[in-house]
Amino acid sequence: xxxxxxLPCLNPASVSLEVTEAxxxxxxxxxxxxxxxxxxxxxPGLSLEIPLVGEVGxxxxxxxxxxxxxxxxxxxxxxxxxxxxxxxxxxxxTRYLPIWVLNGTVALSDLCSSTVKPMAPKAA
Length: 124
Known about the structure:
Layout: E1 2-7, E2 14-21, E3 26-34, E4 37-50, E5 54-67, E6 70-83, E7 86-89, E8 99-106, H1 109-113
Antiparallel strand pairs: 1-2, 2-3, 4-5, 5-6, 6-7, 6-8
């Protein structure tokens, strides 16, 4: 499971990503990423078996760019393994990789410029 925190109103805009997997007891903070990032980060302890290929390590793919007016983010999972001392990832292993969990471009300028009014306490 991904826990994603989008912070488009910061300068620069950023995304925080944490990966959890209950069966393997994984709770891994992938990191905090600012606009302009394009990273493929191994998730320690998380791998899967692909028939006819072998055991593949799971990586988080993080791509963040833009600002609140045009916030672009792509988050996904990829698989990588070493074959003959060469790292091979994604589509070179199987047509099913990478798996994009969240991707898109959103305009959030209105959100950043709005103010939240506190609620008045209710009388008992």
